[in-house]
Amino acid sequence: MDETTPMRGPMPDNVMAPTRQPGMSDSSLERMLGLLDLFTEDRPSWSVEEICDHLSMSQATGYRYLKLLSRTGLLAPAEGSAFILGPRIVQLDRLMRRTDPLLRHGVPVIERARPELHGMFLLSRHYGDHVLCVHQDMTDPTLRTSMERGRPMELFQGAAPRVVLAFLPTYQLRNLMLRHPDRIRAAGLGASWEEFRARLKAVRKEGTRIAIGEVDAGMVGVAAPIFRAPGAVVGAISLAQSEERFRTEDPARLRALALRIADEISAGFTGGGHQPNGRPT
Prior knowledge:
The chain is α+β, with helices and mostly antiparallel strands and 281 residues long. The protein has two domains: 66 residues, Orthogonal Bundle (Arc Repressor Mutant, subunit A), CATH 1.10.10; 169 residues, Beta-Lactamase, CATH 3.30.450. The protein has eleven helices and nine strands. A hairpin with a 4-residue loop joins strand 2 and strand 3. The two termini are 40 Å apart. This is IclR family transcriptional regulator.
């Protein structure tokens, strides 16, 4: 079995679980794990001093956090006094590829649908204020796109993020409106709660969303939501094509294909029983 193939069965019991250190509160733990967000392609390494200055924390706290993150393998020492992302992340990535239910249910469905799309399939999972691509399957090798596995996208732009956003619970949508009113307005989703809710209601009614050039110029995405339980959206399936290819397609066919794939993956979460369809009938 290829190590990227989702593995059925129980999760291995020899995987270290993160533990809360004595005297560490939930907020301290969250702040420590938040250090990982500092590491990007543009800025892959940080020193203790740089981290402490950037986050306005004491050096004693910074050293303690970095020591714990290094001990678990989430960070690793680099040149000089710098730190980089650690090998434990690769271990967790392999484990996710083999055990994540979204991948376990989704990858076989996508493989069966490959002959029906000249473009690319993207399977995405929702977390926090983002949607993250966890699987990519390209059937058009000529495509050039920034949409790829491991790339997070905000909920306000793109086919998959918008369709996930539309099916989030009302309390989460209200919180998003309170935290990100400028981004929501800039994305054309409304300047008020009423406008925001009305635009998302239209997406829910359609059940899919088509986005043209919102992530990459010259690219089109068609997305449908995936549910792990009735009304509980977990992610989305996206069908991506070049605009040139999309102009030769029937958008209704692509919408139907995205909905069918999403429904099959959603059904997998209930063992093939009741379809956990969160869309309105």
